[in-house]
Write a structure and sequence with these properties.
- It is built from three helices and six strands, in the order H-E-E-H-E-E-H-E-E.
- It is of the alpha+beta class.
- The protein has a four-stranded mixed β-sheet, with helices on one face.
- The radius of gyration is 16 Å and the shape is globular.
- The C terminus is likely disordered.
Length: 150
Amino acid sequence: MPAFPRSELEEMVERWLQVNREAEAKGDWTDMIAMYTPDATYGWNYGPNEDFMTVGRDEIRDVALGLEMGGLDGWEYPYQKVLIDDQQGEVLGFWKRVPMAARTRSPGSVGAGSATPATSSGAGSATSSTSATRRPSSSRCSATTHCRTA
């Protein structure tokens, strides 16, 4: 028996993607905070020895979606694939990070064809991912933990 109805997870994914598109167009990712649970965590890896983690809505909004996203105006984060596991109530999304400069370079210019920036280790990254584990429908959403459906 599924942990959550697939249709409920699909609807949540569509809302998540719409909020992402609106934030991208606006250039302000802090509006996404309504999708996170009060106890959500949001983090990522900078390389083999350094991680970044925020805890709770205020820190996620102010640091992860605010400070860390500052200066990335014009960047796009198109989702490449979203996988839904209704048996476990989990969603995994893969997206690309596309800086404006990569979209505006002319063919043959230095860096042409590179759609993603180098990581702190110097290696390029083709895709990133976010996963979300569903909570009951009274919950909200976290890119790394829990998503709401209502």
